[in-house]
Structure formats: structure tokens, C-alpha cells
Amino acid sequence: MKKMITRRQFMAAAGVVAAASALTACGGSSASTAASSAAGSTAGSAAASGSTIKVGVLGPMTGDVSVYGLAVINGASLYMKQVNADGGVNGKQLEIITMDEQGDATQAVTCFTKMCDQGITALVGDVTTTPTLAVAAESADYNMPMVTASATAEAVTYDAETDTVNANVFRATFTDPFQGIKMADYAYKKLGYTKAAVIFLKGADYNEGLAENFVTEFESLGGTVVDQESYSEGDVDFKTQLTTILGKGPEVVFCPNYYQDVGQILAQAESVGLNVPFLGGDGWDGLEGYATADQLKDAYFCANYAKGSNPDFENAYKAEYGEEYPNGFAPLGYDAAMTVVYGIKAAEEQGLEAGSDEYKQAVIDAIAGGTIEGITGTFTFDEHHNPVKQTAILCFDGATPVLKEMF
Amino acid sequence: MTVFFSQLINGLSLGSIYALIALGYSMVYGIILLLNFAHGDVIMVGAYMSWFVMNQLGLGPVTAVCATIITCTLLGVVIEKIAYTPLRSAPRISLLITAIGVSFFLEYTAELILGSGAKVIPAYYTNQTFHLGKVPLGLTSIITLVVTVLSMLVLTFLVQKTKLGKAMRAVSEDMDAARLMGINVNSTISFTFAVGSALAGIGSVLYCCSYPQATPTMGSMLGLKAFVAAVLGGIGSIPGAMIGGIAIGLCECFVSAIGLSAWKDAVTFAILIIVLLVKPTGFLGRKVQEKV
User: Is the rRNA processing keyword given for this protein (chain A) (predicted)?
Assistant: First the structure.
């Protein structure tokens, strides 16, 4: 520690601004296991320290959505700690700068600018859609490489109105439309269903996005969607819709809703005599305990990550944080960090200076053209900076979800 | 046509549950002119009781049903004793606000203790589907309809033919005169709450048969719908509550069935407004003597 201070004092002489910002990590924590041996050689460089590569990790650590934020941040930090333990990137350690945006878009932008002042060279974040949109807009000015683990809205990476891609922004999660399309493909091509019905919550982007894209894809494949039923927020009676569906005689029902509603729907489907298999999206994560084995016979849903599919990650998470990984956001955080580090490796190989404009551009270019072998699947990025990857298809062993296959 | 009859049955069984809950509203309103907004939350407590007995204690469904009905009955009486009795002579607005307060108290206490996530209530029995011609008829629907009709008959007998029923009718007509005639007004009011809450307990069990999840706020919309049913049928009237409940249940089902599920609640409340404009006392709310 003493050596670090000495180095910073030395830097203060060379570049006052850099030193000041490095010492005042306000609103967040700065974790680094920087190898002090590397300090001497590049200590003279200005904006970013030569011995460490600073990576920002932004997300809600307190507040309503902290359950997602903490999972992403822990997952991302876990990967970077592992990289550091293996000797870092190009002999340099990653310095993780974590900040809490409390689930608020304004706060997120403030945190982001602070991070930029502290000289980050890439960002893992944000977590939920609204703050991510705000940070994405701000990050364009800095051309800051930014990988969100979990924001699913299309507008994060691509503005459909002006047909422009946010060049510096990527995401690790699949998008809502992607899930609908994947499940339609799976139902038609793999399971051989040709007549499907849909029941979804009206007025919610997630549910509508999945349902619409399922219908479009399923019909374009040659299948028939015999009925589309919807319901409103807070409804508990689905018997009417399910009876209508029953009357249309589908072979399968796509139900892209969250698990509590799905539990009600499955129970009521059974009671009105609608005994066809159901399919769902990642909102089914958590369904365990809400539906019986009978109701879940031949049911499938897709998810970014299937529990148990990567024991190394799950054990490492438990060893680091003393608890099971809480939800699918943690593996996505891990993969988002992996994506960022992938870009940084490429920039380091070109011998560029961390924090410089060329460095950032090199990171972005590398990610855009790269292939990342993540724990949620191996993925590349399409022209809208969305990951092209396989999704985990889960089925049920009794009432417990298990990985069926990658699709 | 098969679908039409299936939807009719769905509507009837949903309406029956509304009717049972509406009865509790109606009886309490009839006797002390109080809109007991905590009534819906009594159902919520009952649902959690079923969950607790079957899921946590691992006891059988019969115990759960008994425990649920007894809990609801006692809770209704306790609420009346603690919250409403001290306000017997207060302005009616104070009573109404107290009722809303009790409602929030129950909801947030449940949320504090049990969390906001839904608890799954184990099935009371194995559901079976019978066929009436081509129309599938679930055991749950049959039980719901039969239990509701039986409850209604028992209640009518209780109110019309027994001494207690006579006392209830007397108190609802004129509390002071009833007291002068030697009727114990306090115990009669408590008894009314007990009967209304027992019906809520039965409603709670039937509700959980059809919709097996308990959440802290499940009672609020359910209570509101039942209140609409009671007003629609003529608040204070027993057959009125039944008719109002069934009408709302059928209306909701058929609005959803023609593909307007998003408009379901809007249509229900619009009907209420129209009925009240045309007939302010509701379907059967005219005769004062019918009041309980």
C-alpha cells in the first residue's frame, strides 16, 4: 500500500488531474490488486495508469432493483478477479471501479461521468433498461466501450427511428424479440407443432414483445396461430381465455408471462380441460413451486443460463460471495465482463495506451468482430450489436426445471 | 356452442364467488350502514390460513377448510369489536375511514410477515372433469355453484325463520326501537359480522379452489368487485347480492370471451354506473322490509 501511495504521489507530479481523480473514488469503491512491479515502467503516462486498466461496473446496489444489480456486479467482478488472479491482461491488472446508481437514470449518468473522470477505459453496465438508455446516450460522447449484461430493450443498442446503431454499446443478454423467435423456431422445427395459441399480459413490453415475435415467426415458418388471447395486469381469472383457446384446438400454447401468472394459468388450464403443453420465455425462471409436474408435462422455456450448466462458475460464485448465484443476471454479468476484457485484450495486443481514444476504438472494434465463449453460450454480435447465440432450452423433471439442450 | 356453455359455467362459478362475498358487504351495510372495506381482506387472511395449515403444518384439506372459515369468522367479529363498536355513535364517515384503515392494516401486516410474493395453496382435492354432453364441467365449478346455492338457502332460512334473524331484521330497520323491544343490539350486530365473515371464509376456500395463490393484496380488487355486485343487486338485499354477483361474473366472462379482456373491468363498472343512473337502488334494493 505504501508503494502505491508513493506511485500516486509521483504521478501527481506528472499529471495532477489523474492523481486527484484516482484518490477520490466518490460514491463507489475502487478494488485493485495492482502489481506494483509494473509501476515504474509506465508511471509517466497521463490520463490512465499504465500499471492497471480501469474498468467501470455500474448498477443498482441499493433500492428496488438491487437484486438484479448486485447479481450483475458480483458476476462481472468475479470474472475480472479471476482474470487478475491469472496474471491480468498483458501483465496488467484490471482495476474495478464499482458505483451504485440506485436504479435511477440521473444518478446513473452522474456515476458514469465520475467514472470517466477516474479514467475508466470500458464499462460493464448498466443493468435495467431506463438507466441503461440514459448512460448509453451519454457514453456516445466519450465513445466509451459499454457492455450491458441485462438491458433487453432494442433502443439500447439500436435506434430504429433513425436507423442508427449505438456504435459503442453492446449487450450480453438476448432481446425480447429474440426469445419469441427462438421459441417459435423450437416449437415448429424441433417439437413439430403446427397449431399454436398465445396468451399474454397486455400493456407490458416484455410480454407483448415475445408474443408478437412468436406469432410472426411461427406463421412465417408455415404454422398457424389459432388464437391470441390477452389479459390485464392484476387479473387472476384466465378461465375464459383458456376456454376460448380450448375451443380453437391448438397443439401448444405459448405463454410468455412471469411465473406467478404462469402458475395461475397452468392451474386453470388444467381445470378447464386444456391439456396441451405450454411454452414460455425467461419469465418462467422461478416457476418452481407454482405449478405441478402434471401441469408442466412437455413444457419448455428458454433462458440465458440454465442452473447447473456451468458448475465451475456456480462454485466460484459461491466461494467468492458465500451464497448461491441469485438469478440469471449473475452469469450475464460474468459474460458482459468477459466481453469487455476480450476487447481490452485486443487493444493491449496492439500496444495502445489505456484510456486513449484509439484504445477505446480498438476495444469496440474487437468486440464487434469478436467471438466470446461465455458461460451463457458462445456468441458473436450482429449489426445491431445484439449477441447471436444459442439459448438454453429448459424442460421439467417433475416440477424442477432442467437443461434440455442449447438451441 | 360448446364454448358458449363452457363460458357460461365459467361466468357462473366466478359470479358465485362474487355473490358470496357481496353477501357479507350487504348484510353489514344493512345492519349498521357501514361499507366494510376490510371484508375483502378477511378473504385474504383466510387464503393464507389455508396455505398455512396445508403447506406449513402439513394437515389435511378438511382441517384447512374448517380453520379458514373459523379464522375468518373470528377475524370479522374481532374487527367489529375493536374497530367499529367504539365508533357506533360516531359520524358515518369516521366508520368508513376506519374500515379503509383496517383494510390497509391487514394488507400490510400480511406483506410484512409473509412477503409480497404469492404463496401457492395446495389443492384441496383432485380436480376432475365431467362431461355434460360435450360441455366439460370441472368439479371445482360444480362445488362452487352447489356451495353457493346452499349457503344462500341456509342464510335465507336463518334470516327469515329464526329468532336471531328476526332480531337482525329488527335492528336493521330501527336500532333504537329494537333496543327498546329488548333485543340485544350489540350481540346481534356481532352475529351479523360473524355470519358475513363466515361467508367470506367459504368464499375464500372456493376462491382458492379456482385460483390457488394467496397474495397480500388479493382481497382489494375482489372486495371491490363484490361491492359493485352488492350495489348492483341492491345493497342490503340477500337475493340482490346473489343476482348482482352472478351478473358481474357473467359480464366479465362474456366480455373476455368476445376478445375484449382488456375492457373487462371498464365494462363491469360502466354497467354499474348505468344501472345506478336508471335504478339508483339496484335491482332489488327497493323494499325496505327486505333489508337484513
Answer: no
